[in-house]
Amino acid sequence: MPQHSNDKYQRDQLSRHKLLSTCSYNPTANFLAPSARRAIPAAEFRRIYGNISNTTFYSLVSRGELAVHKIGRRTYVDSSEAERFWASCAQVAR
Predict the structure, then answer these.
(1) 0.70 surpassed by pTM
(2) Which of 4, 62, 73, 74 sees the fewest Cβ atoms within 10 Å?
(3) Closest by alpha carbon to 68, among 90, 46, 50?
(4) What is the pLDDT of residues 21-52, one digit of tens each?
(5) What are the C-alpha distances in Å from 51 to residues 42, 47, 57, 76, 83?
(6) How many CB atoms lie within 10 A of CB 35?
């Protein structure tokens, strides 16, 4: 670990703490259950809902069976849309 002057290190830590406490950034937001979040990243949606392949996911999107939101290069599924999609999937009797 590199040596820091103790005063400078403490000032940097205090500045970082103040910054995080004043902004709306929540570092624990990624650990919330999917239903507790407003949007689910596409990769996580695919994993949660049965390891859907990338091709199948975007096929569902292009057919209009699944609505998504794009922010830059990232794709998100609204949590209410995820629940609607899951409810629309046919249940298989055993």
Answers:
(1) no
(2) 73
(3) 46
(4) 444 444 444 555 555 678 899 999 999 888 99
(5) 11, 4, 10, 16, 16
(6) 10
